[in-house]
Amino acid sequence: FSTFMLWMLAQLYHALPEVGDLPKPKLAFFFDEAHLLFDDASEALLEQVEQTARLIRSKGVGVYFATQTPADIPASVLAQLGNRFEHALRAFTPQDADNLKKTVRTFPITSFYDVEQTIQQLGIGEALVTVLSPKGVPTPLAATLLVPPDSLMAALDPATFQGRLGSGILQSKYATAVDRQSAHEIIATRLQQAQSAAAAAQAAQAQAAQAQAAEAQVPPGYSPQPGYGMAPGQVGGRPMTPAQMQREIDRQARAQAREIARAQREAEAERKRQARQVAAAARSRERMVETGVRTAGRVLTSRGGQSLMRGVFGVLFGRK
Length: 320
Description:
The chain is mostly helical. The chain has two domains: 2-146, no CATH class; 185-219 and 239-315. 55% of the residues lie in helices and 9% in strands. The chain has a three-stranded antiparallel beta sheet with strand order 3-4-5, with no helix packed on it. Strands 1-2 form a two-stranded parallel sheet. A hairpin with a 2-residue loop joins strand 6 (234-235) and strand 7. The protein is elongated, with a radius of gyration of 42 Å.
């Protein structure tokens, strides 16, 4: 984690523009349980932490370490921290007394407080505070009571809440919810459109087949109105025998059946083609995931991981 922190701060230092000495940082990082960052840390790592903490302030970035005692942070790094807030410490054991003395030695010298006694007497909401003055010099140590801000402890009524919400500076930007269409939704819509088109084509083919089947039941040459066209049972002006009429009806019925079967085969083939496309896309995604996992495993278990670490420290040291 400490290596990642250094890499991230180094990237910010190289990417952000110089802003000088700002009254407040534009971006702040709070590292809780900061002693975990420095356990078993090498001298090179401590030097990079010290250099980064000292230089990144000019980029408008603040770094804050939260820990039990200042002794948990190396002295070289602690010297770069301008703002210090120390809450109460107790000395119930000899080891606690040693840690207390180490903590006292990290604060500016003051003749107004007995720092060792004052730290043990601090109550809830009290802290010893020293910050940088406008000239960049640490201010004298001061025992400070943190006063909570005045606030309404009860919940706001709906009218007041809506009024505060409507008058906020972010209302114009975030009032309208934006629900953009995701890639999954786009693909699902395309598949649904393709399925609807295939179903519509299949229904049209079935309707056409039904119409042709109905027409096949009428013998050739039949006219619904006497006096128009040929007389019933005539082909080319010649009357058809019952056997010829039956053979003609059977022929057209077989042709219609073949057309219906062809339409069904085409619809089934289209459905299988779409299913194969969906299955192929799923297999492609699975192969991509498996390839990424295997590649990550090879990088982490091979010399590539060492090369990556050298590249990180190369960025920190400013070497190519």
